[in-house]
Amino acid sequence: MSSENVNIGAEPTGIPLFLRKSSLEVNGWRIPHFPRIDDPVVHIHKIQELPIREDDVLIAAYPKSGTHWLWEVTHMLLNQTTEYEKRVKEQVMLEFAGALEAVEKEPSPRILNSHLVFPHLPLEVITKKIKIIHVTRNPKDTLVSLYHHFKQLTPRASFTFDLLLKTVMENNIMFPSQYDYLRQMTEFEQTHPDHPIKHIYFEEMKKDPVKTISSLAKFLGVPASDTFCQHVAEACSFDNMKRVEDEGKKVMPKSMVDSLDQRGQTPAGVKQLDGGMPPHGGSPPHHGGKRPPAKMSFYRKGVVGDWKNSFTPEQSLEFDNYIKMEENKGFPFKFEYE
Questions:
Q1: Are 303 and 106 in contact (CB under 8 A)?
Q2: Which of 57, 138, 209, 325 is found 20 to 30 A from 66 (Cα to Cα)?
Q3: Cα separation, 132 vs 110, whole angstroms
């Protein structure tokens, strides 16, 4: 099935097409729908064959766990700067259309990132033992963040938080469940005990960003004084990262812009770098004959415990039972929920 033909919108009722569980698998793991990718299976094989450099760093995370945040922090540490990266992380996100070509042209040290499971990642990530930064977040806040992220692409009233909650608990979402993702992370670590992996909890970084950044710098093997770590923490605070995004200082990859433009309207939360989009059915403003590039909002609240504003008491209890069931299968991660 071609992801090119997957509707990015929603049907009148039910889970949006692009969020539904795919029937395609590679190495026993489902493949998400990749926007602007003709053959997802071939794309995974291309990712697996990607040449890796010895000094590459990979940020691996389940969606909406804090990847954008860690990518910016890692950029500052490796480049010894508090200047922001001009691009969003999707420019070099392995599964994104066009990213593999961009990655090959990227100067070293490269900061790669992906939401894919290990069986879908470049094989040389393992053989060359590159450093992996794994960021994780409590499942309740992750789910709420997922909902608001995809709601930008699915403004129909039929796509509700309750619908996403049930779809996730039924394991019918397009990517593996957060628990399956974390279990495969643990399994990889157990079978590759000498591979350098740094686990970072979203909640711990919110609580003490300077301490987390200092620890990350040691893992990366770069100098970082207390003062520099403080400056990086301030630059990468939620308010500053949100401001940079709101001011349109980040460049989005063409595949993402094309996917948003394919809708013919501006979803909630999607902004333009210069000028606005017309109402549905209108003509785009003229900028040299081209539509101004779209910009999706990646930063909403960035707080721990925001799940309380979305879960009803009944939903919270239902999800708690789901969490208990999943953790009883064997699970080493311990989360903070407030």
A1: no
A2: 325
A3: 12
Mapped onto helix, strand or coil, the DSSP state of residue 30 is strand
Enumerate residue ranges in the chain where pLDDT < 50: 1-12, 263-295
For tokens 């794994």, the residue is 134
Selection from 219, 250, 235, 296 nearest residue 73 by Cα: 235
**What pLDDT shows up at residue 268?**
36
Distance of alpha carbon 10 from alpha carbon 155, whole angstroms: 8
* Token code pair at residue 230: 């403080």
* Residues 49-92: tens digit of each pLDDT: 999 999 999 999 999 999 989 999 999 999 999 998 877 777 78
pTM: 0.82
229's CB contacts (< 8 A; 6+ apart) are 210, 213, 214, 217
Amino acid at 89: K
Cβ 275 vs Cβ 290: under 8 Å: no
- Give the DSSP letter string of 280-337: TTSPPPPBTTBPPPEEE---S---TTGGGGT--HHHHHHHHHHHHHHHTT--------
DSSP label at 118? G
Q: Of all helices (H) and strands (E), which one includes residue 229?
A: helix 226-235
The upper half-sphere exposure of residue 322, i.e. CA atoms within 13 Å in the direction of its Cβ, equals 20
Tokens 């590679």 sit at which residue?
A: 26
Would residue 193 be called left, alpha or beta, if left means φ above 0 and alpha means ψ between -120 and 50 degrees?
Answer: alpha
Distances (CA, A) of 127 to 52, 137, 212: 9, 28, 28
Residue linked to tokens 């040389």: 124
Element (H or E) spanning 144, and its range?
helix 139-151
Q: How far is CA 260 from the centre of its chain?
A: 17
> Three-state DSSP class for 58?
strand
